[in-house]
Write a structure and sequence with these properties.
The chain is built from 5 helices and 8 strands. The termini are far apart. The protein binds coenzyme A (COA). The site of coenzyme A has 20 residues, from strand 5, helix 3 and helix 4.
Length: about 180
């Protein structure tokens, strides 16, 4: 099922047939440098199953990122619920196939997912959990309107918690007249 469309990308639900294309993304040791290990084939299949469960349970998850120009699945981006210090937070996450880095694709997808979180899910705030050493991911969060909110342990690793909050109408505009 297609979820979002941007100028160059479609975000759609993963299906089991995506395993080979997804492996080119999350089995790449360089792409998964900030994870405990790149995913083997069983891990790729479990990744797809986990996101299919998320779609069924909550209607969202990490979606497949498809390049409109050629129909190829080249990464993932989406919204997932993450437990941060005992609180459930809506997170935007993303991974892009390495040969396509630096073209603004993660930023384009992440912005669409942020808007989905605010508009479709009525989120008050949206986060991205990023290791401080991940200098490729931090600018994507910043271009998504996020700032560092705090630090938190996540899967036993210290992460920066980037956050963007829903804009609220400013009453001061009304009372200052
Ligand atoms: C993080 C990642 C998704 C970025 O994808 P991308 O499509 O290359 O990102 P964008 O092209 O949208 O880049 C956004 C900004 O980040 C900057 N950036 C990207 N990679 C960078 C790097 N290695 N070093 C410094 N800046 C970088 C870009 O220059 C761009 O800023 P600019 O427009 O001012 O030039 C990609 O590097 C990736 O898949 N990394 C591995 C997986 C990962 O770490 N995911 C995030 C987990 S928190």
């Amino acid at each position: 099922m297609q979820i979002l469309e941007t100028s160059r990308l479609l975000l759609r639900e993963f299906c089991r047939d995506d395993d080979a294309a997804l492996a080119r993304v999350i089995s790449d040791p360089e792409t998964m440098r900030f994870y405990p290990a790149p995913f083997d084939r069983a891990g790729v299949e479990e990744w797809i199953e986990r996101n299919m469960r998320r779609y069924a349970e909550s209607g969202h998850g990490l979606w497949g990122m498809v390049l409109k120009s050629n129909g190829e699945l080249i990464g993932d981006c989406g919204v997932t619920i993450q437990n941060v210090g005992g609180v459930s937070e809506l997170e935007v996450g993303y991974h892009v196939r390495r040969d396509l880095w630096g073209q603004g694709l993660a930023t384009e997808a992440a912005r669409a997912c942020r808007d989905y979180g605010f508009i479709r899910l009525s989120a008050e705030r949206i986060i991205s959990l990023i290791r401080s050493e991940n200098i490729a991911s931090r600018p994507v969060a910043e271009k998504n309107g996020m700032e560092i909110w705090k630090e938190a342990m996540h899967y036993n690793l210290l992460h920066l918690v980037y956050c963007v909050r829903r804009e609220r109408p400013r009453l001061s505009h009304l009372t200052s007249e």
